Amino acid sequence: MRRRGFFARLSVSGMRKNGRLYVPYVFSFILSVAMYFIVCYLASGVLKGRMGGGYTMTTIMEFGRLVMMLFIAVFLFYTHSFLVRRRLSEYGLYSVLGMSRRGLSRLALWENGIVYGIGLAFGLVLGLVLTRASELFLARMTRSETPPILWPDGRVFLETALFFALVSLLLCADTIRRLVFKGARELMRQKESGEKPPKANWVIALLGFLCLGAGYGLSLQARNVLSALQSFAVAVLFVIVGTFLLFYAGSVMLCRLLKEWKSFYYRTANFISVSTMSFRMQRNAMGLASICILSTMVLVMLSSTLSMNIGIDDVIRTRYPRDIVITTEFDPAVGFDREMEEKLRTLVADHLSEEGVSAANIAQTEELALTGIWHGDGTFSLNPDDSSLSEGAFVIYVRVGEGEKRPEAGCAFAFTLEADFVTRTLTFGDMTVSLQEIPREKVTGNIASLSIVPTLHLYVREEDMPRLIQAARQVIPEEGVIPTWNYMFDLPYEEEVRRTVSQPLREMAWEMLRESYSQGRYGLAVYRGNEEREDFYALYGGLLYLGIILSLIFMSAVVLVMYYRQVTEGYEDRERYAVMRRLGMRREMIRSTVNRQLRMVFFAPIVQAGLHLAFAFPLIALLLSSFGISNRPLLALISLLAFVVFTLLYALIYRVTGNAYFRIVGRDSEDTQRF
Amino acid sequence: MADTMEKTDNTILEAKCLRRVYTSRFGAHPVTALDNVSFAVTEGEYIAIMGESGSGKTTLLNILAAIDRPTSGQVLLDGRDMTTVSEQHLADFRRERLGYVFQDFQLLDTFTLRDNIFLPLVLSEVKPETMEKRLRPIAEKLGILDVLGKYPYEVSGGQKQRAAVARALIVSPRLILADEPTGALDSHASGQLLDTFSEIHREGQTILMVTHSARAASRAGRILFIRDGRIFHQLYRGECTDEQLYQKIYDTLTLLSAGVERT
After folding, report:
1. What's the gap in Å between the CA of A571 and the closest CA on chain B?
2. Of A73, A152, A409, B48, which has the fewest beta carbons less than 10 angstroms from its beta carbon?
């Protein structure tokens, strides 16, 4: 009896009729597909080897993908629930007219299928365009050649398609659960009932506080980059869950309090705002919490990547204090070879005069690097078995202290960023050094740059240094004891001159080392600051780019959530405002009520996001220190700035979406007036 | 129609030669919903306006309530011409002088019954204590004291309509306008509501009710019959009981439909 395509046509017409709701939904679906696709693409390993830090970025993106999956699922369910609610009566009508449950389920399947089809197709196209744009942008940032058009791996397409198929199936199941398995009568009746405040509200509040506390605690507790990396994901999850719970419990509590505050509640604007707010507490809370979390993500990404790019010159200056840095590693059996140092100095001087240039700001440092294992209880021990980058790995830099940094014999001045560091003595084989803390300002050289591994800086007396090397060799394998000599100078000439002068230095120095040492371990590196600078720009610029694109994506999600809230609530509230007008509400009262309603929920998410950012600060600062950004005041300033700018932007979005709401509720009351 | 105009000193509402023409969206066929309707409402009166669907009675009520404006003619509320009052003041005027009872209650589902009843007072910026003081006697009289904290979806249709009546009464209106107040109620609840109306009428409240139920109209003191946008007949209660008046209304309606058949 039914012609083919009956359900397809019925579902299309149903969606068309609700176009104002479906268009933003399909749009958000498309956007979700596109952003998932991009993150999938970035996580698929294309970054490895293409840019500095590509490996790290791939790991970050892999984590980002997981967050994204969770985010997208929640986001789509959230928006989808609006649609289902609006269509209850329509399904009820079909049911009354004799459509079976199977038929209704097929209808639901068709609708979700159509959205999936459209969303996937357009989303993938959008994703492809954006990834292509990213390629070009990255190439520009890293000043490399325009990359050839690379098609993303087929796996990326497949993963995206599968993930969204799964989500769509779940959405469909949800539709069926809500629409089909309810008696037709109930569907038709569906007088909207408000959300009852939950009985165990305090339990939810407590849980929310605990989650948030756990997340914040993890951030505050992080002592070094390794532990920060490990706890970051967990902290983020805790904070997300905590935010949702708290916003829920918080809005319930707020509504109750405001309603009891009679002289506030019974004012026209507040009266209507508070009651509609408590009427849809749960949805309200969900919406606000998602806005809060998205805002936090934007803030964290922007502030950290911006800090990196602003602080980049700092990093380079600490890592490469001079134009040219020659680093020589000696065999621990030999120790600091003063003779060789002199030879190398002469070599450089001869070479420079041959080239007709002269060096300025010549400086040299001796540094003994020791790697070993750090125990969580705050004590160090030098584990002879393993000195690789594993759990508990640590590095000690030993330098000869002069002037006020010259310690007593057998003692050492010590500095570390590790707050858990409590030990007062260090034992290397048969030598024991007692430690005395010095403030950070007194420490020269690399403190935090690229110090993923916890680091201890020691200053010892000159005569203790050779003893220390010998003692350390007893407990640490050879490759863990590295006497390093840095010789550096500026070349106040054109970059071209610096390049041509410094290029042969490396080969010449190697030649000399090879001639002098027939065996043993030794190493050499010649760094030219500006060359390194480009690499840094590539890595940091790439990260900034990622930060910006992800911020844009999250920002548009914020816009969408807000718009969606306003529009759907506008439709719901329209009849209410019509009734109120009939009871004698003035037009300008509507305007002021709408504004009040917006203002009431305006601050909550952004304030909470600011709090999140503040508590994430220690964690971010630690993670950034692994990129060499250790200027905390600068980071704080940038975070604050990002927050202020974002708040302004947020206010603007709220204003615009608020107008959408007002147009809907305001227009209808005009209609009532006319007829 | 001059004979239907009964002017006394304490006239609350006066409709003068009301005419309302609707032009459809494309302007092809203007429809006259009201044609030269005039009548007056005296303080303390209980008037029912009867007519079939499409007779123009809802249009009339909307114009009286200043929700709609007439094409020509005047509505005088306490001697003031409502058709010339600005849109802004109209809202205040409506809120403070009129109590409106709708067929479908028009309670807001986001408010408890108490807050629904308070709504017009809140719009008038009345103090919470005053509102509570005014509410008590009204809620008691209407028998909804114990459901004031509930939401509209939690109570019965009769309770909803009584809450709507309370909302109309709480502003101490000069006039209560009721649009098919029993339309959505079962016979038991309808009876209760009409009893309530009779009671508040006895206490001096002026009521104007639009209905097509003869049973409801038989509680009124005067009945206006409206057809095709014109008032064509009116009945006074005189010394009749409700039953006798009901019989009279019934006869009039029969006559009316017979008249329709004859033409």
Report:
1. 14
2. A409
Q: Look up residue A341 and give its amino acid.
A: E
As a whole number of angstroms, the distance between CA A58 and CA A49 comes to 10
What value, to the nearest 5°, has the Cα angle with vertex A339 and ends A334 and A345?
Answer: 125
Using alpha carbons only, what angle is made at residue A240 by residues A172 and A639, rounded to the nearest 5 degrees? 130
| B105–chain A nearest CA distance, Å | 10
Whose CA is closest to B219, among B230, B200, B229? B200
What's the distance, Cα to Cα, between the start and end of chain B in Å? Answer: 21
B122 contacts in A (CB within 8 Å)? 266-268, 271
Which of B120, B131, B154 lies nearest to residue A583, judging by beta carbons?
B120
Half-sphere exposure for A307 (CA within 13 Å, toward CB): 30
Locate A389 and state its tokens.
């980058």
User: Residue holding tokens 């749009």?
Assistant: A27
Please give the Cα distance from A125 to B76 (Å, whole number).
66
E strands, A461-608, where? 481-490, 523-528
User: What confidence tens digit (pLDDT) does each residue in A498-547 have?
Assistant: 888 888 888 888 888 887 777 777 787 888 777 777 777 767 776 777 77
Distance from CA of A579 to the nearest CA of B (A): 6
Q: Show me where the domains of chain A are located.
A: 1-191, 200-323+530-675, 324-529
Q: Chain A: nearest CA to B263, how far in angstroms?
A: 31
Cross-chain residue pair B122–A576, CB shorter than 8 Å: no
A580 neighbourhood in chain B, CB within 8 Å: 108, 119, 123
Residue A409 is classified by DSSP as T
What tokens appear for A277 in the block? 């707010």
CB of A382 within 8 A of CB of A372? yes
pLDDT digits (tens, 9 = 90+) for A152-170: 778 889 999 999 999 999 9
pTM, rounded to two decimals: 0.70
Torsion, Cα of B15, B17, B23, B24 (10° steps): 50
Which chain A residues touch B if contact means CB-CB below 8 Å?
A: 191-194, 262-263, 265-268, 271, 275-276, 278-279, 576, 579-589, 672-673, 675
Most B CBs within 10 Å, among A265, A266, A283, to test the B interface: A266
Find out whether A402 and A437 touch, Cβ atoms under 8 Å: no
Give the DSSP H/E element, type plus range, for residue B75: strand B72-77
A381: β partners: A373
Report d(CA A606, CA A129) in Å as an integer. Answer: 32
Which domains are present in chain B? 10-262 (3.40.50.300)
Strands B72-77 and B46-50: unpaired
Q: Which residue of B has its CA nearest to A672?
A: B67
Q: Which residues pair with B134 in a beta bridge?
A: none
Tokens of A589: 């009262």
User: Quick one: tokens of B164?
Assistant: 């709507």
pLDDT digits (tens, 9 = 90+) for A340-395: 888 888 888 888 888 888 888 888 888 888 877 666 554 555 654 544 445 566 77
Residue A460 has phi, psi (to 5 degrees) of -120, 170
**Which residue does chain B place closest to A280, by CA atoms?**
B110
Residues of B in contact with A672 (CB under 8 A): 67
Q: What are phi and psi of A461, to 5 degrees?
A: -75, 155
Identify which of A192, A579, A584 has the shortest CB distance to residue B91. Answer: A584
pLDDT digits 0-9 by tens, A128-151: 888 887 777 766 665 555 555 566
Q: What is the DSSP string of A95-142?
A: HHTT--HHHHHHHHHHHHHHHHHHHHHHHHHHHHHHHHHHHHHHHHHT
- Do strands B11-22 and B72-77 pair parallel, antiparallel, or not at all (unpaired)? antiparallel
Contact B115 A271 (CB under 8 A): yes
d(CA A354, CA A492): 16
